[in-house]
Design a protein that fits this description.
206 residues; mainly beta; OB fold (Dihydrolipoamide Acetyltransferase, E2P); five-stranded mixed β-barrel; elongated
């Protein structure tokens, strides 16, 4: 039975694919859920739980079995770019916060989720390259087994990029918010750089 209203204390059992509630502006799906056709669905068997934060209902499903670490809405994850085109970048999520995963999860970073401003001017090839390691935040799940990500914060973006201009691949260093440089050849390449430089380093403007 589809739930249309939830309360903080309400809990019930569910099975994979079951519709949990209609999506509203105050509904946020978390671990064990995904969105489809305007409804929040369970992605596994377990107990549905609701947490309230201000006006929002955060809905998760706790599995009956052993605890498995999966990305949750709002988590900052480490991912490696695998495929890139003009519309999006596909990646493998390898860490959630400081926790390294036993197996990677599939992630997607869409063009409109790269930056907070001037989204229509984003060029994916000037922001990321295959092999780049990025920091990103998890968005609400809209497709089962695929996590949508965003780098639209100063602290998010490319953390590690390897230079292919030298005889051996070596890590490049950030020289601004939109460029990284090979320390051997001094060749610069465009990137959406994550703000992980020391506090004493120059503060570049976006």
């Amino acid at each position: 039975m589809v739930k249309t209203m939830v309360s903080e204390s309400e809990k019930w059992l569910c099975f994979p694919g079951q519709r949990l509630c209609a999506i509203t502006e105050n509904t946020v799906g978390g671990e064990g859920t995904y969105e489809k056709f305007g409804y929040l669905h369970a992605s596994l068997s377990g107990v549905v739980r609701i947490r309230k934060r201000h006006k929002d209902n955060y809905i998760t499903v706790a599995s009956f079995g052993s605890k498995t670490v999966v990305p949750v809405v709002g988590d900052v994850v480490t991912a490696k770019i695998t495929v890139i085109n003009q519309r999006l970048a596909k990646c493998s999520i390898i860490c959630i916060g400081k926790t390294c995963l036993n197996r990677p999860y599939r992630g997607v970073l869409r063009k409109e989720d790269v930056r907070a401003t001037e989204k229509d001017r984003v060029e994916m090839y000037k922001c990321f390259r295959p092999g780049d390691v990025i920091l990103a935040r998890v968005l609400p799940l809209v497709e089962l087994n695929t996590y949508y990500l965003t780098t639209a914060e100063n602290a998010l973006g490319v953390a590690v990029a390897m230079s292919t201009r030298s005889s051996e691949p070596i890590p490049m260093v950030p020289v601004g918010w939109t460029e990284m440089q090979c320390p051997m050849t001094l060749v610069k390449e465009p990137r959406k750089v994550a703000k992980i430089v020391p506090e004493s380093a120059p503060d570049y403007d976006r």
